[in-house]
Amino acid sequence: RPGAGERVLLGRVLPIRDAAYAGCDDVWEEAGTLVCAWRRAPNPAKLEARLSAYAAARLLETARGFAGRFAPRLPRQPAALVVRRMGRRTLGQCRRDGEIRLSPVLAQFPPETIEETLAHELVHLTHFNHAPDFWRTLTALLPDWLPRALIHYCRE
User: Fold this and answer.
1) Burial of residue 127 (number of CB atoms within 10 Å: 0-12, 13-18, 19+)
2) With 0-12 CB in 10 A as exposed, 13-18 as middle and 19+ as buried, what is 75?
3) Which of 1, 37, 78, 146 is disulfide-compatible with 100, CB 3.0–4.6 A?
4) Which of 88, 8, 100 is nearest to 63 (CA)?
């Protein structure tokens, strides 16, 4: 669990550090630290929104990388990948229009969990249920999906 002044991002606990204005208000990673540049004095009220936006952008970047790797083996490509708030235990969702939704909470998990969740949702593009064909396709796409899923659910 992160302490005060820390944030979990892609499975790592990173300290947060304020920086002087560097041409724009921005957040970036530097030497294992999340750096927040402020035009004026640091604003704790705005910090959470900025960190959440940065985490969502990193989640999308990571998910797009995995989707690009899976693409040649998929009969249908997602129409869009988006980050959107969902139910407490829902990490991903596939809509019939081809949109894949990822929960912002997923940005806290390690890349392996993001990859497993994305693979699961991508398989729903062709199998919109959890019938045996769904599980066979998921196993062909990501052979070690089951141990990954079990590790995730056992941690909760």
Assistant:
1) middle
2) exposed
3) 78
4) 100
Q: How far is Cα 78 from Cα 149, in angstroms, rounded to an integer?
A: 22
Look-up of token digits 């912002």: 104
Q: CA 132: distance to chain centroid?
A: 27
Structure tokens at 148: 């990954």
* Tens digits of residue pLDDT in 89-103: 899 999 999 999 999
Q: How far apart are CA 138 and CA 148, in angstroms?
A: 13
Residue 112: other Cβ atoms inside 10 A: 15
Predicted structure pTM score:
0.89
Arithmetic mean of pLDDT, 32-60:
90
